[in-house]
Design goal:
Dihydrodipicolinate Reductase, domain 2; 8-stranded mixed sheet; 2 domains; 13 helices
Length: about 400
């Protein structure tokens, strides 16, 4: 066992290599591991089910990304490439490193996966996208996780997208005033025959969608769902918000898409306050999104969602985030129906980090039509807001 541990430590050690010799260096790495196994050092198995390419514009981001890759490879063995683009440095350089991530399988075998890290700056950036193709393992799916929304309009991004069938983005830091979301949304619909898109920001909304849906599981509550008249979404606002977080718009788009609401108009009351009006199959709906000051939560985090029906005996259905904790979210859900049922409960849920979310994303190969429909409605809402601002 001691010999096997030394083999694993050697394989996992990150080492610099010549960019043009990455594949050869990896072959040498595994050849050395195989010889050690034959000599009684214990078998080390190389496994790969997919290619995962991660792009970042931050050198400081690389160590965190390596930790994320280590978690992902336990669930989905892959060849991982971390591409680092330094847009600020005028110096032209390209550097590369290789390493691996190993873990014990159920039958106590050491299973290892490769990590390739390539960093570029200056004029060398124009060649960074070209490094992807030759390093991909043929006949395996490619997942591209693009972590820098500001560089999605570059030639580098376009070259990277050409190789991938699954593109993962994260709009978590964006607001409705950031043009990157609209650019990404248009890209989804221009490229959907070639690539399937997903958004980690959308994935983090899963618990909100589940809790809201659970209100209307019973037949008695369905009439309230069909006759919703108002939806109020609150997010934590520390006074610095330059716009409404995209996650609030995505939640609005999800409701409208699932309930067949059509956009009538939209209005920006203030940078942190939007109002929308929709027409449903048999009702009219007003949606209000507004920042809430004085909360204990980080800026931009969703605070609450309240749905009110327009029936004669109205019902109020509310999900509210309470009691901030390190690794889990706590929600209070409540129902109040006029002259009827009234109850509340508290629900705790594990808060997935980026490693959890990516491990789940690489198991999904097709398109998420619910997400695409919600995104399309968000784009329609943003166009209405722009039209409203233009005439003010």
């Amino acid at each position: 066992m001691e010999n096997q541990n030394s083999i694993v430590e050697e394989i996992e050690r990150r080492r610099p290599v010549d960019v043009v010799a990455i594949e050869r260096e990896l072959a040498e790495l595994w050849k050395a591991a195989a010889k050690s196994g034959e000599g009684g050092g214990g078998a080390v198995t190389r496994v790969c089910l997919l290619n995962l390419v991660i792009f970042t514009a931050s050198e400081a981001d690389a160590a965190t990304l390596s930790d994320i890759v280590a978690v992902v490879t336990e669930h989905a063995p892959c060849r991982a490439m971390i591409l680092i683009a330094d847009f600020d440095s005028p110096e032209s350089h390209t550097r590369a490193w290789i390493s691996s991530h190993c873990h014990l399988s159920q039958n106590r075998q050491q299973v290892c996966c490769e990590e390739i890290r390539v960093s570029a700056s200056g004029e060398a950036l124009q060649h960074l996208g070209k490094t992807i193709g030759p390093l991909l393992i043929p006949d395996l799916p490619l997942f591209l996780w693009w972590r820098d929304p500001q560089s999605m309009d570059t030639e580098l991004f376009q070259k990277a997208v050409e190789n991938g069938k699954r593109l993962i983005v994260d709009t978590g830091a964006l607001t409705h005033r950031d043009p990157e979301f609209a650019f990404q949304g248009r890209l989804i619909f221009n490229s959907r025959r070639k690539s399937a898109f997903s958004d980690l920001n959308w994935a983090r909304l899963e618990i909100w969608r589940e809790l809201i849906s659970s209100f209307f599981d019973s037949v008695d509550s369905r009439d309230h769902l069909r006759k919703l008249g108002k939806v109020v979404i609150r997010f934590a606002d520390d006074g610095t918000a330059k716009g409404v977080p995209i996650r609030a718009l995505l939640l609005t788009g999800w409701l409208a898409g699932q309930l067949d609401w059509k956009v009538k108009d939209a209005q920006q009351i203030a940078p942190n306050h939007l109002e929308f009006r929709f027409r449903g199959p048999g009702n009219r709906i007003q949606v209000e999104i507004q920042g809430e000051a004085g909360t204990q939560f980080p800026a931009g985090v969703l605070r609450s969602v309240t749905l009110t029906s327009g029936l004669e005996k109205s019902g109020v259905f509310s999900v509210k985030r309470v009691d901030p904790r390190d690794k889990e979210d706590c929600f209070e859900t409540s129902v109040e129906v006029q002259d009827g049922v009234s109850y509340s409960r508290v629900v705790s849920s594990h808060r997935p980090d980026d490693a959890d979310l990516i491990a789940r994303e690489v198991e999904i190969f097709g398109r998420d039509r619910t997400y695409e429909r919600a995104t399309k409605i968000c784009l329609d809402l943003l166009e209405e807001i722009e039209a409203d601002l233009a005439i003010q």
